[in-house]
Amino acid sequence: MNSCSSRADRRPAPSLPAGQFQPAQQYFTAGKPVVNAQDRDLGNSGNARRRANRIACLQSGPFAALLLVLFLAGSLGGCLRYSFTGVSIPSDVRTIYIPFFPDESGSGLGDLSDLLNDALINRFVNETRLTLTSSQEDADVVLQGRITSYSNRPFSVAGDQRASLNRVQIGVRASYTYSRDDEPKWDKNFSGTFEFDPSGDAIDGENEAAFEALTRIADNMFNDAMGDW
């Protein structure tokens, strides 16, 4: 039998003739167990053996494997720090300039630019150590662009010929440039989508979908910039 699970070193309870029971008070005095010299010697040697068995178990077999897995998990958790709130930014990049993104989509919604600007500031400033500046000359990095397209169309779910949702899709063109460089690190198109149920409050549903679509675009821009950091 495996020593890790063996209980052979434990002294069995004393046997009594059939039909007889040992009174509980014989083993306890003032709430404490009474131990005779023989039991004490057996208990001491048994405790020593059990301690040795526990140490051996921790040094071998599944216990050692479990400890290794926990150690590696902690190490990886410490290494993967480039999350949204733990991104590593170059020491020479301290400030960012995010000008107003004009809405050239013809969406008819008056607050798309404000929503996108707020989402970008939340990602690049509120969740990093970067400071927002009011001019390009004071910035270490510049994120700028424009809203290029907007659509709100019926959307068929899982091939159903009858559309039950509407999908809002927004397109943005943006560039990301370090002030020390002449060319942007990237200059590309981003797209965000979100569905809503038009059978309820269609106006509020569309506004909420536009907000979520712009938030996804801001997340994608942040992820691309994070790859450069």
Q: State the share of residues found in helices, binned by percent.
A: 25-40%
Structural class from helices and strands? alpha/beta
Strand order of the largest sheet: 4-3-5-6-7
Distance between the termini: 56 Å
Order of helices and strands: EEHHEHEEEEH
The number of helices is: 4
Characterize the biggest β-sheet: 5 strands, mixed
Q: Rg to the nearest angstrom?
A: 34 Å
Quick one: how many beta strands? Answer: 7
Calculate the mean pLDDT score and round it.
Answer: 75
Please state the overall shape, judged from the principal axes of the Cα atoms.
elongated
Q: Could you tell me the strand content as a percent range? A: 15-25%
Ranges where pLDDT stays below 50 over 5 or more residues in a row are 3-14, 16-35, 37-44, 66-85
What can you see in these coordinates?
There is one protein chain. This protein is of the alpha/beta class and about 230 residues long. It has 4 helices and 7 strands. The strands form 2 sheets. The chain has a 5-stranded mixed sheet. A two-stranded antiparallel sheet has the order 1-2. Strand 1 and strand 2 form a beta hairpin. Helix 3 runs parallel beside helix 4. It is elongated, with a radius of gyration of 34 Å. Residues about 5-15, about 15-35, about 35-45 and about 65-85 have low confidence and may be disordered.
